[in-house]
Design goal:
By secondary structure, the protein is α/β, with parallel strands linked by helices. Helix content is about 35%, strand content about 10%. A seven-stranded mixed sheet has the order 1-9-8-5-4-2-3, sandwiched between helices. Strands 10-11-12 form a three-stranded antiparallel sheet. A two-stranded antiparallel sheet has the order 6-7. The N and C termini lie far apart (about 90 Å). The relative contact order is 0.12.
Length: about 475
């Protein structure tokens, strides 16, 4: 009690007196330590024996205060893996700005808001492609307008202008399962009508169109960097742009009101800079994996395209088979071969026969799910007619926005969605067969797969030397 009294009577430390709390007497305990590291190590599938050896090795280290897995608490080494991932993306894609996000959907939502999607505005989206493209238009309070596709299964440039209205602010061409849209005419149409181009490259990271990386041709490029794609280990996304203002607006949404600003808490630097956002930040754990993954991407894409082209070059042409259109044979992300049998019934037979030959067909569309069992295809969020949350114009707040809000109706907006709106998509989606490829295939694998495809197609179809070439 006396020492406390003496201390309280001493001069203030600011005036040269002793500090009241000069040091901590209790032990410092790291918030994140060995157990957390071991929990991560378990996800890699190491054996119990290996895990125990890892534990013994790392338990002898003094972790001090422990690591931080926060991007904004990494001013000292080890520096942020999120920043390292974005730096690698800028280098690989050759773009000015890269924003890492928690998902491809987060990147798309950020892009939609960045280009000005909102109440009373429309975005043209393809009839085939994952639901997230259309869903993020709605999340930004805009209205998606579905445009039909061509035989690449990507948006058909010849049908875009018919979808344009005074309310259109952007078009969002999508790379479908590695296939790249025909970007030159799309960009020409967008420039003609002063529309922004948001490239949804979620399913084709690293693909190219006429020598340029997809995601760098339009105003904004969005990617899914995740376990479901050929690049990524968990859940993550990436946004690219060369436009300073679009980048700042994307950050404003994705970084909870602009936490990446030079002075994050400062008043607006220009009109419209600040608005309420959310948090789509990629975690440091994801970034630690993805910074390694993205550097593997260029060589991985080269391997896939070499394998795809090797197989396609060996395939015969048939009267009843239409190969998927490839807009750039040297581009794309060639992890899949797709074609369209003349009828669904023929497709069922081909699908079953390919499976029997050991050539696995795709797991998303009707061949893998239904053909072998002879069942009808279940709904699939990769085609517009099954995107129920959009087609039914549902709204969690029951406000009717964006489909029936005054901002839309006052601008002449009225929308009804019906199956049959995009007949080419309806037809091709139900008939398409997709064969997944593995990046580890060697030339013998390519020969065997090509031989198996030729074997099956020859059994059910008529060879046609004048048919459309595969490549």
């Amino acid at each position: 009690m006396r020492s406390t009294q003496v201390l309280s009577d001493a001069k203030l430390a600011i005036d040269g007196g002793p500090k009241a709390f000069a040091r901590q007497h209790g032990p410092r305990r790291p918030k994140i330590g060995v157990e957390e590291f071991m929990s991560i190590a378990e996800r890699f599938g190491f054996s119990d024996d290996t895990l125990e050896r890892i534990r013994l090795v790392i338990s002898v280290d003094d972790l001090g205060d422990g690591p931080t897995l926060s991007r904004f608490l990494t001013a000292h080494p080890p520096h942020s893996k999120g920043e390292a991932f974005e730096r690698a993306a800028r280098e690989i894609f050759g773009c000015k700005h890269a924003l890492s996000t928690s998902s491809g959907t987060g990147a798309l939502h950020s892009a939609m808001v960045a280009v000005g999607v909102g109440p009373g505005r429309e975005v043209i989206v393809p009839a085939i492609g994952f639901f997230a493209t259309a869903a993020t238009v709605v999340a930004a309070k805009g209205v998606p307008i579905f445009c039909d596709v061509d035989e690449s299964l990507c948006i058909d440039p010849e049908k875009i202008e018919a979808c344009i209205t005074p309310r259109t602010v952007a078009v969002a061409p999508t790379c479908v399962m590695g296939a790249v849209p025909d970007m030159d005419p799309i960009l020409e149409i967008a420039r003609k009508h002063s529309l922004k181009v948001i490239e949804d490259c979620a399913q084709a990271p690293g693909a190219k169109y006429k020598g340029r990386c997809v995601g760098t041709l339009g105003d904004v490029g969005c990617f899914s960097i995740s376990a479901y794609k050929i690049v990524g280990g968990g859940e993550g996304g990436l946004l690219l742009t060369d436009d300073n203002r679009l980048y700042e607006r994307a950050c404003q949404l994705a970084e909870c009101g602009g936490l990446t600003r030079p002075d994050r808490f400062a008043p607006p630097r220009y009109e419209g800079e600040l608005f309420c956002g959310t948090n789509y930040r990629m975690s440091e754990l994801e970034a630690a994996v993805n910074v390694v993954q993205i550097r593997k991407m260029p060589s991985l894409i080269t391997r896939y395209n070499t394998i795809r082209n090797s197989i396609l070059s060996k395939l015969k042409t048939f009267k009843e088979i239409v190969p998927q259109k490839i807009h750039d044979p040297d581009g794309g992300a060639g992890y899949m071969i797709r074609f369209f049998p003349e009828t669904i019934e023929l497709g069922r037979k081909i699908a079953a026969a390919l499976n029997a030959e050991g050539i696995g067909i795709g797991r998303f569309l009707w061949p893998a799910e239904c053909a072998v069992r002879g069942k009808d295809a279940p709904p699939d969020w990769h085609v517009y007619k099954d995107m129920f949350a959009v087609m039914l114009q549902t709204d969690p707040a029951e406000s009717g926005c964006p489909f029936s809000c005054p901002a839309y109706h006052e601008k002449g907006g009225r929308i009804e969605y019906n199956q049959g709106d995009c007949p080419v998509a309806d037809d091709l989606f139900d008939r398409n067969i997709q064969i997944w490829l593995d990046s580890g295939y060697d030339e013998e694998d390519c020969r065997n797969i090509a031989a198996g495809i030729n074997k099956v197609l020859s059994a059910y179809c008529m060879e046609d030397e004048n048919g459309r070439q595969w490549i």
